[in-house]
Design brief:
- This protein is α/β, with parallel strands linked by helices.
- Helices cover 26% and strands 25% of the residues.
- It is built from nine helices and 18 strands.
Length: 334
């Protein structure tokens, strides 16, 4: 039997009712008692890294999870991470960048209802995660939820209560699980060798959601605290124009101060394309901006944190940003 390490971090799956609402209280060994059938498919060992609501997850926690996997990598055939759903897609994307070129599966899962409840999705998600992690064809970082295996850089929580909480954005599911069988849509047959682990992230990344009427001086308010800004623009991408051309001037000041701008879109599907309209075309022509294209926001945020944790050279930042990692982008135009 293959040997799997379960890494518990908290979340709804570990939660119990309190006078202040649900809070993660169950430990890893207690959670496994609810799904004894996992021992029929693999040899399981567990560690408890922390026990938090995923709202409290930070880049420092991502580094802890990656470090735990690195420390145990040679001893196990795969890893299952129990995680809260609210920021699971960020953690999955971050781990995709912190752990690259590996041949072993790293699976994140959780639930919308606590495992102790009579009606819960936790038992199914947990069992199927071990089923997938125990299969010799499985690799890379993925989220498993409601029978869907979603690439770690393509997942997004799209429903707040339903059991089918996660969607794969601009990319098909890696696989599905039906009747305890894995049906694979995408097989990763690329050459992979020893994994590469990264140990640094730069969390000085700001996400700016553009709204009608926003003032361009927002850039001046954040410039002392952040090294990069991701602008969630409208449609295929662009910035508003006024008589003073204030956004263009703000962008110029930001870039001249050796900071990074990534242009993205608020539209969840199909991605950006700044060259379509004048409001985006001129911006991209004048400045060395990065464009997210079909990447998820979770992937853009965590990839930028990873890149800036390794280098501040702008040419290298551009190269790394447009180099695909774990299927995070397919529309690479640069």
């Amino acid at each position: 039997m293959r040997k799997i390490l379960m890494i518990a971090t908290g979340g709804t799956i570990a939660s119990t009712s309190t006078s202040h609402g649900l809070a993660p209280n169950l430990l890893s060994a207690e959670i496994l008692k609810y799904v004894p059938s996992v021992y029929e498919i693999c040899d399981v060992e567990t560690i408890q890294l922390f026990n938090i609501d995923s709202t409290n997850m930070t880049p420092a926690h991502w580094l802890q999870i990656a470090a735990a996997i690195e420390a145990h990598y040679d001893r196990y055939d795969g890893f299952v991470i129990l995680h809260g759903t609210d920021t699971m897609s960020y953690t999955a994307a971050a781990l995709s960048y912190l752990i690259q070129n590996g041949t072993k599966p790293i699976v994140l899962t959780g639930s919308q209802r606590p495992i102790e409840k009579e009606i819960t999705d936790a038992k199914r998600n947990l069992y199927e995660s071990f089923l997938y992690a125990s299969d010799q064809e499985s690799k890379n970082v993925n989220i498993i939820f409601d029978g869907h295996i979603i690439c770690g850089t393509r997942a997004r929580k799209s429903r707040s209560h339903s059991f089918n909480a996660f969607s794969s954005i601009n990319f098909p599911d890696i696989a599905v699980i039906r009747n305890h069988k894995i049906i694979r849509y995408i097989k990763d047959n690329g050459a992979q060798s020893s994994p590469v682990f990264y140990h640094h992230l730069n969390d000085r990344v700001f996400l700016l959601k553009l709204i009608p009427g926003m003032k361009a001086d927002i850039f001046d308010y954040i410039k002392n605290d952040y090294d990069a800004v991701i602008i969630e623009s409208f449609g295929v991408g662009g910035l508003p124009k006024d008589a003073q051309d204030s956004f263009m001037q703000a962008v110029r000041r930001w870039i001249n101060s050796d900071k990074i701008i990534v242009m993205s879109t608020q539209v969840p599907h199909e991605g950006s394309d700044m060259a379509v309209y004048d409001v985006g075309f001129q911006l991209k022509e004048q400045f060395e901006l990065l464009e997210a294209y079909d990447m998820t926001m979770e992937a853009v945020v965590t990839k930028l944190m990873w890149i800036l944790g390794q280098t501040r050279d702008k040419d290298e930042i551009r190269r790394m940003f447009y180099t695909p990692v774990n299927y995070d982008t397919i529309n690479v135009y640069e």
